[in-house]
Design a protein that fits this description.
The chain is α+β, with helices and mostly antiparallel strands. It has 13 helices and 27 strands.
């Protein structure tokens, strides 16, 4: 009897140790939780069966089975039946969760998007506000910054960069993690801060040491992020997408998305977040409607992409072998910011069509509100190939493109990088005609080249008419100044008598006369009217300077 109790005590202890270190979801309404309980029940009942085996063997050598033996046989039979029922229920739940049994739930998980006009809904960005630093480059720049502090570089490693908007500035936040067990053991107050990389200016990289990173992924004991989130607020819920974000005061947090299943073991639906303070370990759970304003992302990217694909796959049911009306997301997606909000932007294509889109989805990363822009054009991959084709002799590789509003039209923007991952050129590609490509050493030069290419196609394409006719104006310079933008000189000036206070902007490469221009000079300009406060010019002529 004592041996049996000892076995059960050891088993319970081992179970507790496993739960602490593995931090599993204990809710059987999730597939991982259901599997955990099915295995655990099987182990406990199997141990009971083995312990009862001694009584059954004794009865083999007796003519009459003892009362105890009968009880044990009955218990063994019930244990086997219970094990069978547990696994049957688990397997059945997985099977019934398939689309065959409820395709409408798969199709309708993503609400029908609101169809919007691209030019009026998507914000026009100044060239110096375009995010040119992608995730890979952010990691390279952060690593260089870390290398400036040799003593620090031996203590920590870089975590996963996360793009976010902090007080109106688009940045990549890169946490620092302990580089090993002994580094953690002797620095349990946390790793030495984080690195901020501007998403719009590769030269702007900052090391922030005011906030230590105490809670980290793949750390030890309750300093481990998943373990801390699970045992504080998430023991019986689904958790996914651990992202590093800063609040408006620059304080670091881990944002852990929580979710439930809308149909048995399938259709994951984000329903809130667990915020874990990376410096103190304090945590708080928020429902979707109560998430703090500074949190940029609640909806995991893969959730959204899967839901859009399901909407397209089951648009006419499960047995749609002709693929009628089906659509799917194009390979890849981008995180974009529009009017201060974070969105997932992805193209959608008809099933069977690889190089053209039928439109674009823009999904709010907090509320999951979806908008669709019905624009026929090139996919992101086709645009990347087109941009790389312009510099094929140099062998540069394109980053995954962002989609921008350029003169009222959807335009892909990407950087072209060398084998070291450094930006060498910039490119703009028309969504509606991916043969229209502008490339330059600076964004200003690339934009000028792109607009020139688009305008040269007048008569052969309809794009120029949609962008709008160029306008030629003349006037006298009131004020003029220069600034450095993206590594190139840009001139900004105003004209006398302009009540609207328009600021005209042009790269130094546009005209050598810009550098010689001063207040009082009469000039002639060409531009594409956009209604913005700052207007890009596409031609410049100083009448005071002889040609």
């Amino acid at each position: 009897m004592k041996k049996k109790w000892l076995i059960w005590v050891i088993l319970v202890a081992l179970t507790g140790i496993y739960i602490f270190f593995a931090a599993p979801n204990l809710n059987p309404l999730y597939p991982d939780g259901g599997f955990f309980w099915a295995v655990l029940i099987t182990i406990y009942l199997a141990v009971g069966l083995l312990m009862n085996l001694g009584v059954s063997i004794k009865d083999l050598f007796h003519t009459h089975v003892s009362v105890e033996g009968l009880k044990q046989k009955r218990a063994n039979k019930l244990s086997l039946i219970a094990i069978g029922i547990v696994w049957i229920l688990y397997i059945l739940a997985n099977v019934i969760s398939a689309p065959l049994f409820n395709y409408k739930a798969y199709r309708d998980q993503m609400d029908t998007p609101v169809v919007k006009e691209f030019s009026s809904d998507v914000q026009v960005l100044d060239l110096d506000q375009i995010p040119v630093v992608d995730k890979d480059l952010a990691r390279i720049l952060a690593d260089r910054k870390l290398g400036e502090k040799p003593s620090l570089g031996s203590q920590v490693v870089l975590g996963e960069p996360t793009i976010q908007n902090v007080n109106g500035e688009l940045i990549w936040a890169v946490p620092l993690h302990h580089s090993g067990f002994f580094k953690w053991l002797f620095n349990m107050d946390g790793a030495a801060g984080y690195i901020v990389v501007s998403a719009t200016n590769p030269q702007d990289v900052r090391y922030v040491e005011d906030h230590k990173i105490k809670i980290q992924p793949d750390s030890y004991l309750l300093f481990d992020l998943e373990r801390r989130a699970r045992f504080s607020k998430g023991l019986f819920t689904g958790m996914v997408d651990y992202s590093f974000e800063l609040n408006d005061e620059g304080e670091p947090y881990w944002v852990v998305s929580t979710y439930h299943n809308r149909w048995l073991y399938s259709l994951k639906e984000a329903d809130g977040v667990i915020l874990v303070n990376a410096s103190t370990g304090e945590s708080q759970r928020y429902a979707l409607e109560d998430v703090p304003d500074w949190v940029d992302r609640v909806q995991p990217e893969d959730f959204i992409m899967e839901q859009i694909d399901n909407k397209g796959e089951y648009v006419k049911g499960v047995f749609n072998f002709s693929n009628s009306g089906k659509f799917r997301t194009s390979p890849g997606d981008a995180i974009v910011y529009n009017d201060g909000k974070c969105y997932l932007f992805t193209g959608v294509t008809s099933v069977g069509v690889d190089q053209s889109t039928i439109g674009f989805y823009m999904v709010d990363m907090v509320t999951k509100e979806a908008s669709m822009y019905q624009i026929s054009g090139a996919t992101e991959n086709a645009a990347m190939e087109s941009a790389e084709g312009k510099v094929q002799d140099l062998g540069y590789q394109s980053t995954f493109p962002l989609i921008l509003n350029v003169d009222g039209q959807p335009t892909y923007f990407m950087t072209l990088k060398d084998n070291a991952g450094l930006i060498k050129k910039y490119a703009f590609v028309s969504v509606q005609d991916f043969m229209l490509v502008g490339v330059g050493d600076t964004m200003d030069a690339a934009m000028k080249d792109y607009r020139s290419v688009v305008q040269s196609q007048e008569g052969s394409t309809g794009i120029v008419d949609e962008v709008g006719e160029t306008q030629e104006i003349s006037g006298v310079i009131d004020r003029i100044a220069s600034e450095l933008s993206g590594g190139s000189t840009v001139y900004l000036f105003t004209l006398q008598g302009d009540e609207a206070g328009t600021i005209y902007r042009g790269a130094a490469s546009l005209s050598s006369e810009l550098a010689l221009t001063q207040s009082g000079d009469e000039v002639s300009l060409q531009l594409v009217p956009s209604g913005d406060k700052v207007v890009e010019i596409i031609e410049f002529d100083n009448m005071a300077i002889p040609n």
